[in-house]
Every structure is written in C-alpha cells, then in structure tokens.
Amino acid sequence: MSNVGLILEEKAADIGNFLVGRLLPFRQKRHVGPFVFIDHMGPTKLKDYQNLDVGPHPHIGLSTLTYLFEGAIMHRDSLGTELEIKPGAVNWMTAGKGVVHSERTPEYLRTTDKTLHGLQIWVALPKELENMEPSFTHVDAEKLPTWSDDNADYRLIAGQFGEHKSAVPVYSPMYLIEIKAKNTFNVSLGKDLFGESALYVLEGSIKDAGEIYGTKQLLVAKDAKLCEFEIEAGSTVYIFGGEELPEEHFIFWNFVSSSRETIEKAKEDWVNHRFPKVPGDDDYVPMPQAQKNSRIKGNEK
After folding, report:
1. What's the rounded Cα separation, in Å, for the pair 207 and 191?
2. 207 burial class (0-12, 13-18, 19+ CB within 10 angstroms)?
3. pTM of model > 0.90
4. DSSP alpha helices (H): ranges in the chain?
5. Is 145 exposed, middle or buried (0-12, 13-18, 19+ CB in 10 A)?
6. Which residues contact 149 (CB under 8 A, 6 or more apart)?
7. What is the pLDDT of residues 260-283, one digit of tens each?
8. SS3 267
9. How distant, in Å, are the alpha carbons of 29, 145, 268 from that of 271?
10. What is the rounded CA–CA span in Å between residue 265 and residue 289?
11. How far is CA 16 from its chain centroid?
12. Cβ neighbours of residue 55 under 8 Å, at least 6 residues apart?
C-alpha cells in the first residue's frame, strides 16, 4: 500500500526578476511540520547582463533557510550581516520580531555568465519565540553532518535525524535531509522520522507501491512518515518535516505569526518605513496590496 497521501507539482512564481518553482504552500497543503514555504530556484542560466536582485524586504515570525546547489548569493540584512553563500552551505536567518534583508548576485559575478540553483525555505517559529531578537547564522558545507553507504550519500542540512544533528540552530523538532543515490535501492527511514514528512524529487525518480514519481514532484506522506521507497540510481531527493504546528498561524507576504494583530502591525510598520534598514542597500520593496492573509491551521489534517 502506498504511503503517499498527496502529490504536488511545482507551480511557477516570481521573486523580483527571477522565476522560481513554488513547492509550499498549496491550497491542499499549507505546511509540512513547521515548514511553511519552499521555493525551488532555477536552475537558471543568467547572462552577463542578468542578475538576481531581490531588494530589501521584511520578515517576522520565521526563520529562512537558503541552500544552493549552484551559484552564489550575497546576503545583506539589517543586523549588519554581509555574507556570500555558496553551494552546500546554509544561511539561517531568524526574523523573530523583525528583520530586513536583500539577496543579490555578488558584485564580481554581475558582468559574467552564471547559473543559480537552490532552495529557499521558511520555517515558522513556535508561538513563544515569534517576538525573539533577530539573528543570523552561516554554516559552511563541511560542518553539516554527512554519511555514506554503498548505495547513497546523505547530508543533514537542518534539524535532527537519528544520531545526526545539524549545526543549524533550529527552534523546533524538524529535519531536512539530502539523499544522492549511487545505485537503485530501497530506502528505509521510518524509525528516525517523526511528525509530518514530505519528499521532494530534485532529480531522477522514486517508486512507491508500484507508482513512479519524477522530477519536480513533492510527495506528502499519508501516515506521518515516508517509511520505505525505491530510489533510482543518480536521483537526488530531499526529505523534510517535523512536529506539526501546535497553533494556528497566518501568512501575509513575508510575515508569519499566530496573531493577526501582529501581522497588521508589521504591514503598517513596513509601509511607514519603521523597520530597520539594511546597511549598504537602500532599495525598498513595496508591499503587495492585492495579497490577502492566508491561514495555517495548527495540526492541520
């Protein structure tokens, strides 16, 4: 019997001048554990006159995780951070009560051809930490837990999985695992997964109960855990999830909160330029007027 409860295809979305594939949220599924938003960027080949330019924009109530497969992004934020992220490393920014950041092609790449490819993820903060002080952590690729066997290479990008624990300072029980298959084999992870879980096929395919699922498909587990599946040689998949959100959350634009009033205040503060500034980046991304609040129910089924 298949353990796949929901199959979602990437849908196109725009971030600044860059087209991405949106994995979460969908109408049928607003979150997986504390994961409330996932964008697949690229792979996009940019000409010497094309660049990623996401100007200063605000966040509250969440942590953002950036993980690149190819390319580079210069991150700047209102904490004074200015740091380039490269493939395999993790940028983890916790917005808490409010932070502003920009993401751009680094200066030395702006007049050359380049490729950009990666994941951008939002993780909702627990209610009691929504108004914490903002922070930023960069974890180099070599500091992430990795292990291998005859069939695959594994990397724990964030959270905890069995005896492995990532250096990324998460605030709720969760996991984000990369699997790169060297051979076609049966994956069995059930005993170390918890809460809700989902699987994203970046490359290749997997088979579950005789059904084949391919590139750019997101599979949400039916019964909490993706226990066993067959992965094709050469495939790359990401398994993510964790404990479900214990309370209702609301999302508007880049704001996540368990309180509608907090989101309304954040909207007013951004429109009235009351958020902190990003040193060295004076741009301003206007708040979209047409967007409506969406709701994430705690323990949503």
Report:
1. 20
2. middle
3. no
4. 260-271
5. middle
6. none
7. 999 999 999 999 999 999 999 989
8. helix
9. 30, 41, 5
10. 15
11. 17
12. 16, 102, 281, 283, 284, 285
Which range among 10-19, 70-79, 114-123 shows the weakest confidence by mean pLDDT?
10-19
Residue 180: strand, helix, or coil: strand
Q: Is 258 exposed, middle or buried (0-12, 13-18, 19+ CB in 10 A)?
A: buried
Amino acid found at 169: P
Residue with the bigger pLDDT between 2 and 214: it is 214
In sequence order, what are the residues at sequence separation of 6 or more whose Cβ sits closer than 8 angstroms to the Cβ of residue 275? 58, 78, 98, 100, 269
Residue range 142-172, pLDDT digits in tens: 999 999 999 999 999 999 999 999 999 999 9
pLDDT of residue 65: 97
Structure tokens at 180: 């790169």
Q: Quote the CA–CA distance of 266 and 97 in Å, as a whole number.
A: 9
Structure tokens at 83: 């740091």
**In the chain, what's the furthest Cα-to-Cα distance?**
57
Count of Cβ atoms closer than 10 Å to residue 300 Cβ: 15
3-state DSSP assignment of residue 265: helix
Sort strands 62-70 and 114-124 into parallel, antiparallel or unpaired.
antiparallel
Strands laid side by side in the 18-24 sheet: 11-15, 18-24, 35-46, 114-124, 62-70, 90-94, 135-139
> Percent of the chain beyond pLDDT 70?
84
